[in-house]
Amino acid sequence: MAGVGDVRIQESLRVKIGEAKKLPTSSVSGGNRSTYCVLKLDNENIFKTSVVEKSSSPFYGEEFQGEIPRKFRFLSCYVYEAGHRNEKVLGKVTLRKEELYKYHGKDHWFPLSPALEANNEIQGKVHIEISFDEFLNTDPESSTSHRMAVRVVECSDLTVTNGACNPYALVTVSYGKSRAKEDVKRTCVKKKTICPQYDEKFFFDLENRGQNQDRNQYVIDDVFSGEMSISLWHDDSRVSREVLGGMFRGVFLGEVKIPLRDLDIRHRHNAWYFLQSRDGSKHTNQELGSIRLKISYTADHVFSSHYYEDLRNLLLKSPNVQPITSSAACILSEVVENLEDAAQPIMRIFLQNGKMVPLVKALAEWEISKTSDPNTLFRGNTLASKLVDSLMKLVGIPYLHDTIKGVIDLIRSEQKSCEIDPSRLKEDEKLEENMATLKDYVEKMYKSITDSGLVCPTIVCEIFFAVKDAAMKHYPESTEVRYQVVSGFIFLRFFAPAILGPRLFELTNEVLSPTLHRTLTLVSKAIQSMGNLVSSKTLSLGIKEEFMVPLFQHFSDDKHTDGVKRFLDIISSARQAHSIKIEAPIVLKEGWMIKRAQGRKKFGLKNFKRRYFCLTNHSLNYARNKGEGPLCEIPIEDILAVEKLEEESFEKKCMFQVVQSQRALYIQASNCVEEAQWVDILTKICTSNKNRLKEYHPAAFINGHWLCCKSFDPSAKGCTPVTGGLSVGEIKKDIDIDREIEKIHSLFLTNREKLEALQAYLCEIHDACASQEVYSGDTEPMPLVHIDDTKTCFETLNEILKCVISLEQEHMQYKKMVQKQTVIGSEETPISEDNYQKYLSTMATAR
Q: Most buried among 300, 390, 612, 639, using CB within 10 Å?
């Protein structure tokens, strides 16, 4: 059984901010306001949407997704008025962490409430200690025995206000049913800290607080109808508050209220409390509108690897299961409500284990076999398409930075209008100028994309090759299917969404202005249409937005179509040695250069000769003359590094080296421009090599030693780090495989009833489970997945349920252990509104 310390808790959050409605109009002009939204964890801003101009029902349509690296109490969504000097809050939605599960994975409309307390959520906690001195002493003459001692020990995680936190505490004890009488004590101010250490004790004399001094029991009843509060304040010179007969500066940070009747006078009360907001801060009759949010919060309790071995092995068998629809991966994708929830962990697990290509290939072949129209291939939300989507987003972020980030940065910096819809043009704008600017941006984006084929991540290219190969085999008569299947992924699902929402693809952290958002929308549409041109020359006909037709027509010529096709050929070409015979090579660059003999012969001069070089997606070769057979051919997978060569090696300029396992080929280009182009393109090709070097020698090995590091060993490890490169291996190392398996377990567990219903359905078909207890219900169970073979599907289901039940038993044992070790009132589990009654019950039982 896993111990508490052996289990990791990993939290993640995804929030889709949809739209708002019935927002209040401006109190000054009476018109609609421009607004934006901000997501907060407690008081920390984690996401901000773009501004939506002047609308009472704005559509934001943005999403935050990320890991939560720290503990939090509240998730909030604030609606701000844009352009307001003091960041005016129109309303907010605040949810406690404990209630997020109620809204998981579904759209909900939340009413907006006022944002008080300086627009901050109350956070932090306070440690207090309360004791009584002989409170039950009935001697009316004893004044010292009837008192309560309150010790403010410390606080932590207090709110920073106006860039600072100088906290002090007020301890207030109120008496009587009306609580009209009160005593107030104040701690000292602790400067510049959110975790102040006070250790100050205050005494409250309770003897003379009753209405009848001669009846001690009446005094006790009167006192115990009172309340004690500890409030925290930030000492701020700009805010004044009158207390204790003087003026004190303070901004409210939170408070704790404790009814005196809940205190046990026989025992010392020592506990941590979460700070709360003040009474009345949540009540209003004002209508502030509402907002639609889709919240997905998960807290994965991750065990050690050996707990997941059976489920991991079962899942990884999926590509080899015949038919593929009977595999664990397919069954999971059919029973979950949101396919993306299943696709992401499946993709990461198979990528980390080097089985992503076989899985996608098997799924693609099955999907293609069930599709009659090649134009609809992978256009829907199937497991295969979602897996490729997730893969491109995971490994493709550096690729996007190399490819389109520069153009997006240019568009952001220039902030030019590209509006070509006549109905949306402003008075000072000209359609012709806007069209010219838009065409220029689209052309730059097109060139950046089509010139980037060689740096497309290798794993993505291998996936595209597998998908294209399966489609061509199934549709041998179609000349365009090879482009359709690839363009649907790379343009429709990758480049176009990244241009439209650069923040989601880590291309910028800045909030998009309305003008910039509109420009990127138009560029995204144009790039998407260019990707579709490879299969349809009439794309612009019949489209809804007629103003886009001239733009589409401009980029539908043979030049742009051929450029897209060449790009698609490169990113879907076979880069592995075993695939060279399958696909014809694509020439990437060729020309005359001078090479130095590699010393492959035992005897012979290592002189320089002029040769004709040709680089394809398969190999680098050179021949005596153009068109002749190659004298030497180096497979791409044998190129371990490509770097410039120091001039001192041969006292020649414009030299570079192609490093192989046994030797390096030294080459001299005709000029510095040619040298840079060859090094660039060969470096990009080299990134596909899984055995790519980490270090190299910047100078040659001459006269028995390396000129750079003076080593006499010709096979010595390089002395300088290689430049450039993109390694999917680095991404694989960052995948938390145990957590991904835990996510799979959670999904299976959530859908356990569906799995058992399907199991019962298959049992009924074959009467295979007559001696077993299976699912029985009021309604006849129905198949939940596409079943091609009932026998293998039933076998897989049995294995899935066995793994899920076994893992869930471990989780239940862990939860019992945690519950047993949890102490309410400790620093790890402070007392709050949610657990206060449970705390009282626990204390009563303990005493």
A: 639
